[in-house]
């Protein structure tokens, strides 16, 4: 089945040249092509030279976006005893124990991040098939299995994101909103690039970065010159 491209997107595609843009130029174009009737998200799609079917080539980590996500992040916490009250007092949108696990099993998904205390992980494990495909399963590597609930909740609400490479080695991350300034988008994109470089899997061989594209939610894909992005210093962004 051939997907029909809207007239709006056809017109926007004409603005994008088939070349790798300098980071600032690419982000200006992203903002220019964000013409939907709502505030679109800024998306990054990064192809890496990894094969995630091998454990030493998997990438799963977190990034703290300096300028935030532009979204209200709903945090759910699975804990027990006093930790449930601590979660509520720290700003969790939902907190509970076995009863929250039961609600999630029944299809309740009113959250963007799920944090669990280590002692609850044996019970949380039964949610793996449900949460895994959605990227919501708590993990120590992702900073979502912890007893320090106050810090974790605060960080995720402030702009910390968990992300992973999909099975084809591509990372998909929202790094802001189309109404952010170009400089703020660039600061977030630079933080994402540095995080991916810092967490390069030990089994990654050869060329690590293959391609980087950015786009607004409903806009065309724009290729970014990855070498220019990696060479950029944060002092140049500020």
From TrEMBL:
In terms of PROSITE patterns, this protein maps to: RIBOSOMAL_L1
- State the family it belongs to: Belongs to the universal ribosomal protein uL1 family.
Record NCBIfam families: rplA_bact (TIGR01169)
What are the UniProt keywords, alphabetically? Repressor, Ribonucleoprotein, Ribosomal protein, RNA-binding, rRNA-binding, Translation regulation, tRNA-binding
Supply the name of the protein: Large ribosomal subunit protein uL1
Q: How does it assemble?
A: Part of the 50S ribosomal subunit.
User: Tell me, what does this protein do in biology?
Assistant: Protein L1 is also a translational repressor protein, it controls the translation of the L11 operon by binding to its mRNA. Binds directly to 23S rRNA. The L1 stalk is quite mobile in the ribosome, and is involved in E site tRNA release.
Q: Does the keyword rRNA processing apply?
A: no
